[in-house]
Amino acid sequence: MKTLSKFGVIAAIAGSLFLSSCASDYYVADQPVEPVYVRPVAPYARAYWVPGEWVYRGHRYVYRNGYYTRPRANRVYVQGNWVHTPRGYAWRKGHWRR
């Protein structure tokens, strides 16, 4: 059985990460309209509301409602947004940033 060198393993991991990041971009001609919903009451003190996100499922974007979570120390939540590209609109997912 042949084993991979360290370079081969690193190249394989980098390639799979590149391909998985490319596969996550789905484009639509027009960005969907965000549904109107009522934010529920916070379940505990200092709960942080993470806004809803768009996810690509079944050949279309569907809206996933927001949720409460505990704030993360020394981090700020950056809300997701629509990005216009020459191929159409794509959703950039929200994330926690230092």
Strand order of the largest sheet: 1-4
Uncertain regions spanning at least 5 consecutive residues: 7-23
What value does the average pLDDT take?
A: 82
Q: Helicity range of the residues?
A: 10-25%
% residues in beta strands: 25-35%
From the N-terminal CA to the C-terminal CA, the straight-line distance is 44 Å
Number of discrete domains: 1
The total count of helices amounts to 1
Major pleated sheet: 2 strands, antiparallel
Query: Which H/E pattern describes the elements?
Result: HEEEEEEEE
Q: What is the structural class?
A: alpha+beta
Rg computed from alpha carbons, rounded to a whole number of angstroms: 18 Å
Cα shape: globular
Number of strands: 8
What would your notes on this structure say?
18% of the residues lie in helices and 33% in strands. By secondary structure, it is of the alpha+beta class. Residues 7-23 have low confidence and may be disordered. It has a two-stranded antiparallel sheet with strand order 1-4. It has a two-stranded antiparallel ribbon with strand order 2-3. A two-stranded antiparallel sheet has the order 5-8.
Keywords:
98 residues; alpha+beta; two-stranded antiparallel sheet; 8 strands; globular
Quick structural gist:
Helix content is 18%, strand content 33%. The chain is α+β, with helices and mostly antiparallel strands.
